[in-house]
Design goal:
The protein has 186 residues and is mainly β. It has a domain of 108 residues: Nucleic acid-binding proteins (OB fold (Dihydrolipoamide Acetyltransferase, E2P), Beta Barrel). The chain is 12% helix and 41% strand. It has three helices and twelve strands, in the order αββββββββααββββ. Strands 1, 2, 3, 7, 8, 9, 10, 11 and 12 form a nine-stranded mixed β-sheet that branches. The protein has a three-stranded antiparallel β-sheet with strand order 4-5-6, with no helix packed on it. The longest helix is centred in the first third of the chain and has 9 residues. The protein is elongated and about 55 Å long. This is Replication factor A C-terminal domain-containing protein.
């Protein structure tokens, strides 16, 4: 299985990624919204908490990619030179590290949405590091269902016509469902 996904690579190259270590307080019960309630949020509110089950639907998606060690943005392999190039730093032959990333479905009693997990949050959910993911054979499945609380950020792209949800914080949950903080960019 190839870990190259041109569609996700294009999105990553177009948009600067935000750090995953966002300082968020544990939400009060009345600050948790439903997935269906996201559409009723004020447009300027882009971070919110939801209580949701998290499941990985596509076990064949790439779970890691290489990033520039300086800026942590995606680095592309130049097949002719076998070196990585960072377009964010505008440098060739950059030193790289793997970074974990995958998409999962967040579901509550009102609906579901697809959100992207990055870096430490993705590693926490999978219970392994990006470095360890590199060594997992592509035909070996990664567990598909986990229950955690997440803070999520929504980002608009394609001229604001589409919304992408990024998980920015995780909170372990003892209940059957998980609390998620989600960001909505429209």
């Amino acid at each position: 299985m190839s870990f190259v996904n041109e569609y996700l690579s294009a999105i990553i190259n177009e948009k600067r990624l935000f750090p995953s270590q966002t300082a968020l307080r544990t939400p009060q019960y009345n600050n948790i919204i439903t997935i269906n309630g996201i559409q009723n949020l004020p447009q300027e509110q882009t971070t919110f908490w939801i209580n949701a089950s998290i499941s990985i639907k596509n076990l064949r998606q790439p779970f890691w990619y290489m990033t520039c060690i300086k800026c942590r943005q995606k680095a592309d392999l130049d097949n002719q030179t076998s070196y990585f190039n960072c377009y964010n730093c505008n440098e060739s032959s950059v030193e790289t590290i793997p970074r974990c990333r995958f998409q999962a479905q967040l579901t509550d009693h009102t609906g579901s949405l697809i959100a992207t997990f990055f870096s430490e949050n993705a590693e926490k959910m999978l219970n392994c590091t990006a470095q360890e993911l590199i060594h997992i054979p592509s035909d070996q499945n990664i567990s598909s269902v986990v229950r955690l609380s997440t803070a999520t950020r929504a980002d608009a792209y394609s001229g604001g016509s589409q919304t992408k949800y990024n998980v920015i914080s995780l909170l372990e949950s003892d209940s059957e469902s998980s609390t998620s903080s989600t960001t909505n960019d429209t």
